[in-house]
Amino acid sequence: MSVNYSFSRVQSFDSCKLQYKYRYIDRLHSEIETVEAFMGSRVHEALRELYDFVKNATVKPMDWLLRRYEDLWQKNFSEAVKVVKKEYCADDYFRKGLKCLTDYYDGYAPFDRTKVVKTEEKVSYTLRSDGDEYSFTGYVDRIDWNDRERIFEIHDYKTSGTLMSQEEADRDFQLGLYQLALQARWPEAKEARLVWHYLLFNKEIESRRSPEDLARMQDEFVRRIKVIEGTQDFGPEKSSLCEWCGYEDICPLWAHPKKTEKLSVNAYLNDPGVKLVSRYAELEAQKKELNHRIDEIEIEQAEVEEAAVVLAEKENVLLLDGPGHQLVITIGEEICAPTRAEDQEKWAGLRDTLLRENRFCEVATVNNGMLGRMLKNWPREFLDQIRPCLVKKIVRKADLKKKR
Description:
single chain; alpha/beta; Lambda Exonuclease, Chain A; six-stranded mixed β-sheet; two-stranded parallel ribbon
């Protein structure tokens, strides 16, 4: 149990294995912070300070909360804060944070529905499943005690621009894991209300976990940890989240674009990589032009072939003579297998008969195209059976993509 796992740690692995390696194995610190994360941190800090006062029977006015948020923003903001969406500026995000806090204050003042137990509380728990144990740590935004219902509440503030559905909330791991940690501290937490505050939408989403839910969730989270610990290849995963990653400058997928975007026009055009991409694109364009011409030739060739067969039938001949070449005409029936698109019923019937008579293997073959598709769909147990039969090869190729 030397490694301390958290929800964000496992989530990082699910998003991009290389990002996980940089952050949690190589321990590389990124100086870059996105403006969305920065705004979220300042909103969290302001609410934590507000509830620290509430916990001590003091309700600060809204003006105090907004001023405190502004102070936190100004003291912590720097040029390292990255604004990904160029149509917006940092001030736009500052105002979004103000709106989050204003709406929240209006909706919950005077903050007397529950009793505040802890704010920004570190919780720890030993996850156990099938004899395996893993340390889990997290930070809960706020823990309340609902005195009327005699139940704990676990609150989480979200400044995300996407709203979680109720189904997603009922499947969410993070607050369920926090509930497990609270149970170890307070047995009453066996019954708990999980509450997400989506501040940009001024919306609260609630969920509960039964003991059976918590047990299944713990088993699944341990399974995900085992996948992490069994991973040796930490390759990058290109997605829409890349622009919000702090490791673009060293990531194999982004290091060259990030390097070249800082160059002057002349230096950019003379960069060896840029030259190679440009030449490759020129050759790809020539290939497309030639392929288009080949398609036209094949269409015309098929028309000539059809005309030759018609003429041969009309003249009752099986060979047409020409300067330097001849066309041998063959006219007869050929038995063919139907394609699935041509006749679904006959295709399925042929396949089933071949399988039933143990003849399918005589017409089927093993190839990488088939294997690549099926590896994504076959169950893990079957993949484990065939793994010894597979080989690893180094594949080197270049794919031309449009520049985003």
